[in-house]
Amino acid sequence: xxxxxxxxxxxxxxxxxxxxxxxxxxxxxxxxxxxxxxxxxxxxxxxxxxxxxxxxxxxxxxxxxxxxxxxxxxxxxxxxxxxxxxxxxxxxxxxxxxxxxxxxxxxxxxxxxxxxxxxxxxxxxxxxxxxxxxxxxxxxxxxxxxxxxxxxxxxxxxxxxxxxxxxxxxxxxxxxxxxxxxxxxxxxxxxxxxxxxxxxxxxxxxxxxxxxxxxxxxxxxxxxxxxxxxxxxxxxxxxxxxxxxxxxxxxxxxxxxxxxxxxxxxxxxxxxxxxxxxxxxxxxxxxxxxxxxxxxxxxxxxxxxxxxxxxxxxxxxxxxxxxxxxxxxxxxxx
Length: 334
Description:
Shape: globular
Strand content: 5-15%
CATH architecture of the domain at 87-317: Alpha-Beta Barrel
Order of helices and strands: HHEHEHEHEHEHEEHEHHEH
Helix content: 25-40%
CATH topology of the domain at 87-317: TIM Barrel
Number of strands: 9
Distance between the termini: 141 Å
CATH superfamily of the domain at 87-317: Glycoside hydrolase/deacetylase
Structural class: alpha/beta
Radius of gyration: 41 Å
Mean pLDDT: 77
Largest sheet: 9 strands, parallel
CATH class of the domain at 87-317: Alpha Beta
């Protein structure tokens, strides 16, 4: 019996100081006595530690946002007659020949006014679409040019030989073809705008419709402002012909001259035409115009403050040159 006890002690004592061996077994959570639990996967401890997701520190900053785009000043709304500082208006004449002209001008996204000649192939479509696009319209009234000019003003023209009754009837018919027009300006008319009697009939009709007169000044001898003031019609006149020459360099200089005129006199009106060169220059200079410090407005926004005879601005405008722009348009087929 004693010999058996000694043998047992001799077998057990050598194992009492051994360290337990790391098996590297990552065990799953017990689910009870069911044998359905999947066996734990053998994963080396060092790799198991390395695959743990790294915790983000609280001091980590989010990525910087991209820089904001440079904002271009937005055009002034129609009727912005209380805007402080210099203002300029650009009127594009001779709309109605092609609807593409209107679409190109509308895409410029600057506050232009357009002057529509009635009876041209795209006149009706232009007139219906302009209010939807927020573009101000004038009736571009055809008027008699000088005979030596050899120009055809088209249908609906006002002639110095017409009676007062006939003149007023023709103006009414043309206004009916451009509903929504806020004013009237002359297409050609180097002869008619020197005739006070004919202008008197025109102004009577303009006043009755509550519109204003914009004198395109196609002749230095125009009496448009004089007759308009006598009739009590709100009136103003153009300062710059933007594209008397259909040349990009010339048009660019004229647009910049318009802005400088507004800086000097407070307001300025420029008249142009839907030439490809004119549209290209306006698109090129859009950002420059909107950032010039001169607010672009529809021409009606300048009418309320238009000067009467004898004012400083009227005296400054007296030196404007004349001359009808060399523009030839086809009239619609009857």
